[in-house]
Amino acid sequence: MLYKRIIIGSDHAGFSLKKYLINKLNSKEQIVKYDIKDIGCYDENRVDYPNIAQNLCGILKQQPDEMGILICGTGIGISIAANRFKHIRCALCYDSEMAEMSRKHNNANCIALGGRKLENEEAFKIVEKFLKTDFEGGRHQLRIGKINDFN
After folding, report:
1. Shortest CA distance to 67 belongs to which of 136, 150, 13, 134?
2. Which single residue of 60, 69, 112, 120 could bond 92 by disulfide (Cβ 3.0 to 4.6 Å)?
């Protein structure tokens, strides 16, 4: 299954990468056309990443079939903030294999990226792998069920 609807947000440190990813995902070369909802930030002025994560997670709670992309300087803070929400499985990924496994084995519905840690094209390859990989289910579903039982 290829996901067509994406929610994307970043803080100021991830703003440049976010703009690049939106343009690349909307480019004419893309076979799949994505419907991308940009929830901010909209320039390089300082913003707090927990606010961006909270906004994105709120949308994913209401629209669980959509996928999320969150970007901050390293990806660490924004992934921690996102994973505070019970319905979110946000994976911090620095390569395509991590992105693939986050979907196959963990059914991640959100990916976190480090805007200061990744080159644009590498980040795009990571996002592309994330969006095009399906969850395997099976024994992995049992583990996710256990995680969902926390709290």
Report:
1. 134
2. 112
What pTM was estimated for this model as a whole? 0.93
Tokens of 51: 């606010």
12 is catalytic: no
Query: Looking at the domain covering 5-148, what would its CATH class be?
Result: alpha beta
Burial class (CB in 10 A: 0-12, 13-18, 19+), 52: buried
pLDDT one-digit tens code per residue, 16-43 = 999 999 999 999 887 788 899 999 999 9
Query: Which residue out of 12, 87, 105, 140 is catalytically annotated?
Result: 105
